């Protein structure tokens, strides 16, 4: 599927294959009422395509952001809900997947029973914490909580960076109640100060619920502990450095490098005993956190875990805790003024617990096999265009080009849904036990992950469910993955002409392909091995171009006084720019040398860029913007739309930009990578 011998089939041919259903003239695929006729694309492509929609649209009270992605996620959730509702009308054998799906969802939805139970469901875990008498016991408890609760040192299992065919355990820093270390460290940031104050208030309420005699003092102790953890954490930019975060150690080497924590007991309780080695992603952070266990009172650690446990389970506990969690994690951190509907929260948890079981039912209703075949052909076209683009790079030497082509030829493509579905037969789901179901499903998933350590990587496994509106690139598998739920308008519309589809889903495909060649993915070869396959001169040339992109995006200011972190968003910005360039080449290729028709007053090339911009339609509340600017490697949608287009020769040609236009950029200053 990834070989370049794939026959090139244009989207126009795919539409013909759809038959009589598409015999009518194609629409442009553009949401014309959503345009702002007062804004020229030459000045602001994003608002030209989306300004009318932005003026007419209010962010729903239960959301912190709203746009194309969120609308599709809502649609996916509604479809899953319909599936669950249909299952509820039928009788199912005890222990069957259908029975488990129904019981999980119904238990989550039964807030009357949850309120009546009070704190009884969580009291056994709180009692476990109270019973801890030593740091050794605390380490083992944290191991048992993997999959159920985020701990200061998290564990995961995936393909080893240097031996990607074998799964290895790795550590990752964690344990903060606020979104990122910056919320603790940037004391002069007023917005983050408000978030800290809201968090202190929330911790006080949690401490009250936990029965602490002095809840405000308890909150202060937990905040002080988290401050120490935050000071140890690496920042988001360092965590993007694949070479820097790969630090293989034997268990003995880890114990020596990070004394003060019972690593053997922790790993054994996490079902990871007997590992010959693991990767320590942030060595200095792990060492500092291990040291904290000996420096801070055991009573403070127990208090910290009690409050974090109540926070993590609050949605499945009585109303006062649910409301308090939303007041902090919803309103204070994201700006939402109403909770997401309970049914939608239930669907989110259900997808996490039984995601592929639900996904199998989802694709049976909403993703016919023909869709998958058509998408495979489109991906093949994009890969072929990428191959040609690599051949034409002026800044790369033949030796590095050969390595890049080898990597591209080895891409694995996954579309729609997995070929083999996950087995949930051993997951225990009980009617009327909402919290127990969540805890058991979290541990069930963790034990599935832990069991992979030291074993061969399963290349057929998926990291997203089919009903997820997203896509991804995995460097150790050298794969691109497109779940079924993203293959819908405005990204992919079988009733629209080629231009908009190439500008939307084509650019998404190109984006994921390009992740294999961004600042992170380019450090892995075609077999998924972390190694430098570049000549020194080529790598320097690539980094020099990347530095220009960092500078461009670092100048954008999404909210007053808060600019984009160009280094944090570099990989996604490279993928946006490269993906748009490749999709445009693929679109021109699909025309076969013939001019595209003018539809709705736009040429084919103009519709391509309007389709690209329309796909990034979104409005975001300020609180959520602050969170995303701090933690998200993606640029805000407005800057994704404009930031890539301004560097694209095709955009300037399509709209005839000239000096004085706000989107104009001289030819010699445009950034070109792949």
From TrEMBL:
Residue ranges occupied by any Peptidase M13 N-terminal domain in the UniProt entry: 42-418
Top-level taxon of the source organism: Bacteria
Signal peptide segment: 1-23
GO cellular component: plasma membrane
Entry-linked InterPro entries: MetalloPept_cat_dom_sf, Peptidase_M13, Peptidase_M13_C, Peptidase_M13_dom_2, Peptidase_M13_N
Stated family: Belongs to the peptidase M13 family.
Gene Ontology terms for molecular function: metal ion binding; metalloendopeptidase activity
Cofactor(s), names only, from the UniProt record: Zn(2+)
An example Gene Ontology biological process: protein processing
Record-annotated Peptidase M13 C-terminal domain positions: 470-667
Keywords from the UniProt entry: Hydrolase, Metal-binding, Metalloprotease, Protease, Signal, Zinc
Alphabetized CDD domains for the sequence: M13
Source organism (scientific name): Paucibacter sediminis
Protein name stated in the entry: M13 family metallopeptidase
Higher taxonomy: Bacteria, Pseudomonadati, Pseudomonadota, Betaproteobacteria, Burkholderiales
């Amino acid at each position: 599927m990834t070989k370049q011998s794939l026959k090139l089939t244009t989207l126009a041919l795919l539409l013909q294959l759809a038959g009589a259903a598409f015999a009518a003239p194609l629409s442009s695929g553009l949401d014309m009422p959503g345009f702002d006729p007062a804004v020229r694309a030459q000045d602001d492509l994003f608002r030209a395509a989306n300004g009318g929609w932005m003026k007419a649209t209010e962010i729903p009270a239960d959301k912190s952001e709203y746009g194309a992605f969120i609308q599709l996620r809502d649609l996916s959730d509604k479809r899953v809900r319909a599936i669950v509702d249909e299952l509820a009308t039928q009788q199912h054998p005890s222990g069957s997947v259908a029975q488990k799906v129904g019981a999980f969802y119904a238990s989550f939805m039964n807030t009357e029973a949850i309120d009546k139970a009070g704190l009884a469901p969580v009291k056994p875990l709180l009692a476990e914490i109270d019973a801890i008498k030593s740091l050794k016991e605390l380490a083992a408890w944290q191991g048992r909580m993997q999959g159920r609760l985020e701990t200061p040192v998290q564990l995961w299992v995936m393909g080893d960076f240097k031996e990607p065919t074998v799964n290895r355990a790795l550590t990752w820093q964690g344990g903060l109640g606020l979104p990122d270390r910056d919320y603790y460290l940037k004391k002069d940031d007023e917005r983050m100060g408000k978030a800290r104050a809201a968090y202190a208030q929330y911790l006080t309420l949690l401490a009250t619920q936990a029965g602490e005699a002095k809840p405000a003092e308890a909150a202060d102790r937990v905040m002080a502990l988290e401050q120490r953890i935050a000071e140890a954490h690496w920042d988001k930019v360092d965590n993007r450095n694949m070479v820097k975060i790969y630090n293989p150690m034997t268990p003995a080497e880890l114990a020596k490098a990070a004394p003060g924590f019972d690593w053997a007991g922790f790993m054994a309780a996490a079902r990871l005993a007997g590992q010959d080695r693991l990767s320590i992603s942030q060595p200095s952070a792990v060492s500092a956190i291990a040291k904290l266990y000996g420096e801070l009172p055991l009573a403070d650690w127990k208090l910290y875990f009690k409050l974090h446990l109540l926070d993590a389970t609050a949605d499945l506990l009585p109303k006062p805790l649910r409301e308090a969690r939303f007041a902090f994690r919803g309103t204070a951190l994201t700006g939402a003024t109403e909770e997401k509907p309970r049914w939608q929260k239930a669907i989110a948890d259900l997808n996490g617990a039984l995601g592929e079981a639900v996904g199998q039912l989802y694709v049976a209703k909403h993703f016919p096999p023909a869709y998958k075949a058509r998408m495979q052909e489109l991906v093949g076209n994009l890969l072929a265009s990428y191959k040609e683009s690599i051949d034409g790079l002026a800044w790369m030497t033949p030796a590095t080009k050969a390595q890049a082509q080898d990597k591209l030829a080895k891409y694995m493509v996954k579309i729609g849904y997995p070929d083999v579905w996950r087995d949930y037969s051993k997951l225990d789901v009980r009617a009327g036990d909402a919290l127990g179901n969540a805890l058991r499903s979290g541990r069930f998933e963790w034990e599935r992950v832990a069991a992979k350590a030291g074993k061969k990587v399963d290349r057929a496994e998926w990291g997203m469910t089919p009903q997820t509106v997203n896509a991804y690139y995995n460097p150790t598998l050298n794969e691109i993955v497109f779940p079924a739920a993203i293959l819908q308008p405005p990204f992919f519309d079988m009733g629209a002409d080629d231009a908009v589809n190439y500008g939307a889903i084509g650019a998404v495909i190109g984006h994921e392909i390009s992740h294999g060649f961004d600042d992170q993915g380019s450090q892995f070869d075609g077999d998924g091995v972390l190694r430098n396959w570049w000549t020194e001169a080529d790598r320097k040339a690539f980094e020099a171009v990347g530095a220009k992109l960092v500078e461009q995006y670092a100048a954008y200011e999404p909210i007053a006084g808060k600019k984009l972190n160009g280094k944090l968003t570099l990989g996604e910005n490279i993928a946006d720019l490269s993906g748009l360039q490749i999709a445009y080449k693929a679109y021109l290729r699909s025309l076969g040398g013939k001019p595209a028709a003018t539809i709705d007053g736009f040429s084919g090339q103009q519709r391509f860029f309007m389709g690209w911009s329309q796909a990034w339609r979104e409005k975001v509340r300020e609180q959520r913007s602050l969170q995303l600017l701090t933690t998200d490697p993606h640029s805000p949608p407005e800057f994704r739309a404009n930031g890539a287009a301004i560097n694209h020769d095709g955009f300037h040609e399509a709209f005839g930009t000239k000096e004085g236009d706000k989107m104009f950029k001289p030819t010699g200053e445009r950034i070109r990578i792949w």
